[in-house]
Write a structure and sequence with these properties.
With about 325 residues, the chain is mainly alpha-helical. Helix 6 packs across helix 10 (about 255-275). It contains twelve helices and four strands, in the order E-E-E-H-E-H-H-H-H-H-H-H-H-H-H-H. The chain has two domains: about 1-75, no CATH class; about 80-310, Hypothetical protein af1432.
Length: about 325
Protein backbone atom coordinates (compact mmCIF):
# COMPACT_ATOMS: atom_id res chain seq x y z
CA UNK A 1 0.00 0.00 0.00
CA UNK A 2 1.39 3.39 -0.99
CA UNK A 3 1.03 6.55 1.07
CA UNK A 4 0.96 10.18 -0.06
CA UNK A 5 2.16 13.06 2.14
CA UNK A 6 0.12 16.23 2.66
CA UNK A 7 0.72 19.34 4.69
CA UNK A 8 -1.01 19.31 8.08
CA UNK A 9 -2.27 22.82 7.33
CA UNK A 10 -4.45 21.48 4.49
CA UNK A 11 -6.70 19.68 6.97
CA UNK A 12 -8.82 22.30 8.77
CA UNK A 13 -10.08 21.48 12.28
CA UNK A 14 -13.60 20.15 12.84
CA UNK A 15 -14.14 19.35 9.15
CA UNK A 16 -15.46 15.87 8.34
CA UNK A 17 -12.80 13.76 6.67
CA UNK A 18 -13.59 11.82 3.51
CA UNK A 19 -10.53 9.58 3.86
CA UNK A 20 -8.54 7.81 6.55
CA UNK A 21 -5.71 9.96 7.89
CA UNK A 22 -2.31 8.67 9.03
CA UNK A 23 0.88 9.92 10.64
CA UNK A 24 4.35 8.47 10.18
CA UNK A 25 5.97 7.40 13.44
CA UNK A 26 9.27 5.51 13.54
CA UNK A 27 8.88 4.53 9.89
CA UNK A 28 5.39 3.14 10.46
CA UNK A 29 2.10 4.60 9.25
CA UNK A 30 -0.35 4.85 12.13
CA UNK A 31 -3.99 5.72 11.60
CA UNK A 32 -4.84 9.01 13.26
CA UNK A 33 -8.47 9.43 12.19
CA UNK A 34 -11.10 7.47 10.28
CA UNK A 35 -13.02 8.69 7.27
CA UNK A 36 -16.22 10.33 8.55
CA UNK A 37 -14.56 11.70 11.69
CA UNK A 38 -12.90 15.09 12.23
CA UNK A 39 -9.87 16.42 14.08
CA UNK A 40 -10.73 19.05 16.65
CA UNK A 41 -8.79 22.29 16.98
CA UNK A 42 -7.09 21.33 20.24
CA UNK A 43 -5.76 18.06 18.84
CA UNK A 44 -4.54 19.77 15.67
CA UNK A 45 -2.68 22.41 17.64
CA UNK A 46 -1.08 19.74 19.82
CA UNK A 47 0.19 17.91 16.74
CA UNK A 48 1.65 21.15 15.39
CA UNK A 49 3.37 21.81 18.72
CA UNK A 50 4.93 18.35 18.43
CA UNK A 51 6.36 19.38 15.03
CA UNK A 52 4.12 17.07 13.04
CA UNK A 53 4.35 18.74 9.63
CA UNK A 54 2.66 16.12 7.45
CA UNK A 55 -0.27 13.77 7.45
CA UNK A 56 -0.54 10.84 5.05
CA UNK A 57 -3.30 9.22 3.05
CA UNK A 58 -3.32 6.01 1.03
CA UNK A 59 -2.86 6.56 -2.71
CA UNK A 60 -6.39 5.33 -3.44
CA UNK A 61 -7.80 8.30 -1.50
CA UNK A 62 -6.00 10.90 -3.60
CA UNK A 63 -9.13 12.10 -5.44
CA UNK A 64 -11.19 12.16 -2.24
CA UNK A 65 -8.49 14.30 -0.59
CA UNK A 66 -8.36 16.71 -3.53
CA UNK A 67 -12.14 17.24 -3.43
CA UNK A 68 -11.91 17.71 0.34
CA UNK A 69 -9.23 20.39 -0.13
CA UNK A 70 -11.10 22.12 -2.96
CA UNK A 71 -14.27 22.27 -0.87
CA UNK A 72 -12.37 23.52 2.18
CA UNK A 73 -10.72 26.32 0.20
CA UNK A 74 -14.00 27.31 -1.46
CA UNK A 75 -15.76 27.43 1.91
CA UNK A 76 -12.95 29.35 3.58
CA UNK A 77 -11.34 31.81 1.22
CA UNK A 78 -14.17 34.37 1.03
CA UNK A 79 -15.82 33.76 4.41
CA UNK A 80 -15.67 37.06 6.34
CA UNK A 81 -16.01 35.18 9.64
CA UNK A 82 -12.78 33.23 9.21
CA UNK A 83 -9.57 35.02 10.32
CA UNK A 84 -7.08 35.86 7.59
CA UNK A 85 -4.37 33.81 9.30
CA UNK A 86 -6.48 30.65 8.95
CA UNK A 87 -7.23 31.40 5.29
CA UNK A 88 -3.57 32.01 4.51
CA UNK A 89 -2.47 28.86 6.35
CA UNK A 90 -4.86 26.71 4.33
CA UNK A 91 -4.16 28.27 0.92
CA UNK A 92 -0.43 28.29 1.60
CA UNK A 93 -0.42 24.65 2.67
CA UNK A 94 -2.32 23.60 -0.44
CA UNK A 95 0.17 25.50 -2.62
CA UNK A 96 3.16 23.97 -0.82
CA UNK A 97 1.74 20.47 -1.26
CA UNK A 98 1.04 21.07 -4.96
CA UNK A 99 4.49 22.55 -5.59
CA UNK A 100 6.14 19.64 -3.79
CA UNK A 101 4.25 17.07 -5.87
CA UNK A 102 5.21 18.93 -9.06
CA UNK A 103 8.86 18.78 -8.00
CA UNK A 104 8.54 15.00 -7.64
CA UNK A 105 6.57 14.37 -10.84
CA UNK A 106 6.32 17.45 -13.07
CA UNK A 107 4.92 15.57 -16.07
CA UNK A 108 1.82 14.37 -14.25
CA UNK A 109 -1.37 16.10 -15.43
CA UNK A 110 -3.09 15.90 -12.04
CA UNK A 111 -0.11 17.53 -10.34
CA UNK A 112 -0.14 20.38 -12.87
CA UNK A 113 -3.88 21.01 -12.50
CA UNK A 114 -3.53 21.04 -8.70
CA UNK A 115 -0.66 23.52 -8.97
CA UNK A 116 -2.73 25.70 -11.28
CA UNK A 117 -5.63 25.73 -8.80
CA UNK A 118 -3.29 26.40 -5.88
CA UNK A 119 -1.66 29.32 -7.69
CA UNK A 120 -5.07 30.79 -8.55
CA UNK A 121 -6.09 30.59 -4.90
CA UNK A 122 -2.89 32.33 -3.81
CA UNK A 123 -3.55 35.10 -6.34
CA UNK A 124 -7.13 35.44 -5.15
CA UNK A 125 -6.34 35.71 -1.45
CA UNK A 126 -3.59 38.27 -2.09
CA UNK A 127 -5.81 40.41 -4.31
CA UNK A 128 -8.75 40.33 -1.89
CA UNK A 129 -6.80 40.81 1.36
CA UNK A 130 -4.27 43.67 1.56
CA UNK A 131 -2.44 42.06 4.50
CA UNK A 132 -2.08 38.61 2.91
CA UNK A 133 1.13 39.10 0.92
CA UNK A 134 3.19 40.00 3.98
CA UNK A 135 1.91 36.90 5.76
CA UNK A 136 2.93 34.66 2.84
CA UNK A 137 6.14 36.22 1.59
CA UNK A 138 9.58 35.59 3.04
CA UNK A 139 8.93 32.99 5.72
CA UNK A 140 11.94 31.09 6.96
CA UNK A 141 11.99 27.56 5.62
CA UNK A 142 13.87 24.42 6.49
CA UNK A 143 16.71 23.66 4.09
CA UNK A 144 14.71 20.88 2.43
CA UNK A 145 11.82 23.30 1.88
CA UNK A 146 13.72 26.27 0.43
CA UNK A 147 12.83 25.64 -3.21
CA UNK A 148 9.15 25.27 -2.28
CA UNK A 149 9.19 28.48 -0.21
CA UNK A 150 11.00 30.29 -3.03
CA UNK A 151 8.27 29.15 -5.45
CA UNK A 152 5.52 30.51 -3.18
CA UNK A 153 7.40 33.76 -2.65
CA UNK A 154 7.82 34.34 -6.37
CA UNK A 155 4.20 33.43 -7.09
CA UNK A 156 2.87 35.82 -4.45
CA UNK A 157 5.11 38.78 -5.25
CA UNK A 158 5.12 38.48 -9.06
CA UNK A 159 1.32 38.33 -9.28
CA UNK A 160 1.00 41.31 -6.94
CA UNK A 161 3.28 43.31 -9.24
CA UNK A 162 1.42 42.17 -12.37
CA UNK A 163 -1.90 43.20 -10.78
CA UNK A 164 -0.50 46.66 -9.99
CA UNK A 165 0.50 46.94 -13.65
CA UNK A 166 -3.10 46.11 -14.61
CA UNK A 167 -2.53 42.86 -16.44
CA UNK A 168 -5.62 40.80 -17.26
CA UNK A 169 -6.89 38.09 -14.92
CA UNK A 170 -5.79 35.41 -17.41
CA UNK A 171 -2.27 36.86 -17.59
CA UNK A 172 -2.00 37.05 -13.81
CA UNK A 173 -3.28 33.48 -13.44
CA UNK A 174 -0.77 32.25 -16.05
CA UNK A 175 2.00 34.12 -14.27
CA UNK A 176 0.98 32.63 -10.94
CA UNK A 177 1.02 29.10 -12.30
CA UNK A 178 4.39 29.59 -13.99
CA UNK A 179 5.87 31.16 -10.87
CA UNK A 180 4.73 28.34 -8.59
CA UNK A 181 6.32 25.64 -10.78
CA UNK A 182 9.14 27.53 -12.54
CA UNK A 183 11.94 25.53 -10.91
CA UNK A 184 10.71 21.98 -11.48
CA UNK A 185 13.71 21.41 -13.77
CA UNK A 186 16.06 21.64 -10.80
CA UNK A 187 15.31 17.98 -10.10
CA UNK A 188 17.21 17.13 -13.28
CA UNK A 189 20.46 18.62 -11.99
CA UNK A 190 23.22 16.13 -11.27
CA UNK A 191 23.52 15.39 -7.56
CA UNK A 192 26.81 17.28 -7.36
CA UNK A 193 25.03 20.40 -8.67
CA UNK A 194 22.09 20.45 -6.24
CA UNK A 195 23.83 23.04 -4.09
CA UNK A 196 23.87 25.57 -6.94
CA UNK A 197 20.39 26.75 -5.94
CA UNK A 198 22.03 28.19 -2.84
CA UNK A 199 24.66 30.18 -4.73
CA UNK A 200 24.36 33.63 -6.26
CA UNK A 201 24.84 33.83 -10.02
CA UNK A 202 27.96 35.97 -9.69
CA UNK A 203 29.56 33.19 -7.61
CA UNK A 204 29.26 30.55 -10.36
CA UNK A 205 32.28 29.37 -12.28
CA UNK A 206 31.74 28.63 -15.98
CA UNK A 207 30.86 24.94 -15.42
CA UNK A 208 28.43 25.75 -12.62
CA UNK A 209 26.75 28.44 -14.69
CA UNK A 210 26.34 26.04 -17.62
CA UNK A 211 24.88 23.34 -15.39
CA UNK A 212 22.49 25.63 -13.50
CA UNK A 213 21.27 27.34 -16.68
CA UNK A 214 19.93 24.04 -17.98
CA UNK A 215 17.07 24.00 -15.49
CA UNK A 216 15.04 26.79 -17.12
CA UNK A 217 14.66 24.99 -20.46
CA UNK A 218 14.37 21.62 -18.71
CA UNK A 219 11.46 22.99 -16.68
CA UNK A 220 9.67 24.24 -19.80
CA UNK A 221 10.48 21.21 -21.97
CA UNK A 222 8.81 18.84 -19.51
CA UNK A 223 5.54 20.74 -20.02
CA UNK A 224 5.81 22.10 -23.56
CA UNK A 225 4.05 19.26 -25.39
CA UNK A 226 1.31 18.75 -22.82
CA UNK A 227 -2.15 19.70 -24.18
CA UNK A 228 -3.26 20.91 -20.75
CA UNK A 229 -0.43 23.49 -20.44
CA UNK A 230 -0.83 26.71 -22.39
CA UNK A 231 2.00 28.29 -24.38
CA UNK A 232 2.14 31.42 -22.22
CA UNK A 233 2.90 29.40 -19.06
CA UNK A 234 5.65 27.45 -20.84
CA UNK A 235 7.33 30.57 -22.20
CA UNK A 236 7.23 32.26 -18.80
CA UNK A 237 8.94 29.24 -17.26
CA UNK A 238 11.48 28.98 -20.09
CA UNK A 239 12.52 32.62 -19.70
CA UNK A 240 12.46 33.08 -15.93
CA UNK A 241 16.28 33.43 -15.79
CA UNK A 242 16.51 35.94 -18.68
CA UNK A 243 17.24 39.68 -18.50
CA UNK A 244 17.38 42.65 -20.85
CA UNK A 245 21.18 42.46 -21.12
CA UNK A 246 20.89 39.03 -22.75
CA UNK A 247 23.03 37.16 -20.23
CA UNK A 248 20.41 34.53 -19.37
CA UNK A 249 20.41 30.89 -20.54
CA UNK A 250 18.55 31.73 -23.78
CA UNK A 251 20.38 35.05 -24.42
CA UNK A 252 17.08 36.89 -24.93
CA UNK A 253 17.20 40.69 -24.81
CA UNK A 254 13.53 41.29 -25.51
CA UNK A 255 11.07 40.04 -22.93
CA UNK A 256 7.33 40.44 -22.53
CA UNK A 257 6.46 42.39 -19.42
CA UNK A 258 5.18 39.22 -17.75
CA UNK A 259 8.48 37.46 -18.51
CA UNK A 260 10.40 40.42 -17.14
CA UNK A 261 8.26 40.47 -13.97
CA UNK A 262 8.91 36.78 -13.32
CA UNK A 263 12.64 37.13 -14.03
CA UNK A 264 12.96 40.19 -11.77
CA UNK A 265 11.06 38.70 -8.82
CA UNK A 266 12.87 35.38 -9.20
CA UNK A 267 16.26 37.13 -9.14
CA UNK A 268 15.34 39.26 -6.12
CA UNK A 269 13.97 36.37 -4.07
CA UNK A 270 16.99 34.18 -4.86
CA UNK A 271 19.26 37.00 -3.70
CA UNK A 272 17.27 37.46 -0.52
CA UNK A 273 17.32 33.74 0.19
CA UNK A 274 21.05 33.37 -0.42
CA UNK A 275 22.42 36.58 1.10
CA UNK A 276 23.22 36.04 4.76
CA UNK A 277 22.93 38.80 7.37
CA UNK A 278 21.47 41.41 5.02
CA UNK A 279 18.12 43.14 5.29
CA UNK A 280 15.68 43.10 2.37
CA UNK A 281 16.43 46.80 1.82
CA UNK A 282 20.16 46.09 1.62
CA UNK A 283 19.59 43.20 -0.78
CA UNK A 284 17.43 45.41 -3.00
CA UNK A 285 20.04 48.20 -3.09
CA UNK A 286 22.80 45.75 -3.98
CA UNK A 287 20.64 44.24 -6.71
CA UNK A 288 19.95 47.68 -8.20
CA UNK A 289 23.70 48.18 -8.57
CA UNK A 290 24.65 44.70 -9.75
CA UNK A 291 21.70 44.32 -12.14
CA UNK A 292 21.66 47.81 -13.64
CA UNK A 293 20.29 47.45 -17.18
CA UNK A 294 18.94 43.95 -16.56
CA UNK A 295 15.39 45.21 -16.05
CA UNK A 296 13.55 48.31 -17.24
CA UNK A 297 13.65 51.34 -14.96
CA UNK A 298 9.86 51.60 -14.93
CA UNK A 299 9.43 47.99 -13.84
CA UNK A 300 12.10 48.32 -11.17
CA UNK A 301 10.36 51.43 -9.80
CA UNK A 302 6.99 49.64 -9.71
CA UNK A 303 8.65 46.68 -8.01
CA UNK A 304 10.09 48.94 -5.30
CA UNK A 305 6.65 50.51 -4.93
CA UNK A 306 5.12 47.09 -4.21
CA UNK A 307 7.87 46.13 -1.76
CA UNK A 308 7.48 49.36 0.17
CA UNK A 309 3.67 49.50 0.12
CA UNK A 310 3.48 45.91 1.38
CA UNK A 311 5.98 46.57 4.15
CA UNK A 312 8.53 44.11 2.74
CA UNK A 313 11.32 46.72 2.68
CA UNK A 314 11.75 49.89 4.69
Amino acid sequence: MGYLPLRISTVPPDRQLTFDLYINFKEQYLKLADSGSAIDHEKLEKLKSQNVARFYIVEEDSMAYQKFVDDAVNDTIDDPNIPLDEKVELVEGVAETAAEEMQKNPENQTNFIRSQKAANNLVHIIQENPAALKKIYGKKAAKSEEIIQHSLNVCALATKLATLLQHSKQDVDDLGTAALIHDVGLNKLAKKDHGLFKKLKNEFNSDEKRAYNLHANDSADMLAEKPYVNHNVCELIRNHEENLKGTGPNKKKKLTQLEEILALVNAYDKRLLNTADATPSEVLKRMQIDEMGSYSLNLMNKFMEVLKSEGLVE
